[in-house]
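Last lecture ended with a question: if I hand you only a sequence, what can you say about the shape of the protein? Today we answer it with a concrete record. The protein is Chromosome replication initiation inhibitor protein. Below, first the input exactly as provided, then the predicted structure, then a couple of comments.
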Amino acid sequence: MLDYAALRAVSAVAETGSFEKAAEFLGVTPSAVSQRVRRLEERLGAVLIVRGTPCLATETGSWLCRHVEHVGLLEAELLQRLPAPPTWSSGQQPRTVLHIGINADSLATWFLAPAAAFAVRTGHLIKFAVDDQDHTAEWLEQGRVVAAVTASVSPVQGCRVVPLGALRYLATASPDFVARHLPRGLDAQALADTPSLTFNEKDRLQERWARQVFGRPVIGPTHWLPSSRGFVDACLAGMGWGMNPEPLVRAHLDAGRLVELQADTPLDVPLHWQINRLAGAALEGLTQDILAAAHGSLVPMSPAA
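The predicted structure:
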């Protein structure tokens, strides 16, 4: 039988990043938290917390934290079904923290509304782990999140996959930028000499779009800008061209503040909702909210996606 006081101590340290903050959160002393974590580590024969600034959960520790998350979801569901649910004094109501993997562009366009509705309805807290859609499945594999929006259709072990649709991207820039850098029109060589915008080292959207248009990737000078909204602002300011989600730039395109580098060449990125089966029933309401939001904001996926 697992020691749930020790499990909650491990989860609190991983969540807050320190033994002191975890102690404050749990209402005990830092020494008590340290003893609980150490006792569980000795019993399991594994390091669960890497001590540092901040303290971080190991892979085994992360799996235990997700177990605490699942238990919290089950307890919350049970309490709702009791004929006389317990009453909590101010500040004592237990809160379940859900870890969800999400790509920055989904968070900036369509995902926040269903997540917020779910949080308001249930009282659960959400910690977003932001990564490229091609890499969020790795967070599931490592036990660091309970669910994720991912480009991967292949189910992570123990997870259920729900197709969502495709987030449409458009290669956009300001009219002034196009006039300055592409006065003779767009071809592969001209694009290779034109400054682009790249979110981070994992971002391959510009290369994928160029391969789709020219049959090969085109590598050129780039600005590094890890912000979905910043991408749009940088394009408006004439800093570079970028692959922007259509929901973020449609009004700018309609008003002429931005233009497509080449008309009718969207890049559709398929997205899927992968959720740990152990949490699937407790999070069914969130899944339905996400499906409704995706239906209104994403485009249908191609049959091959």
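Comments.
1. The chain has a mean pLDDT of 90.
2. The first strand starts at residue 49 and ends at 50.
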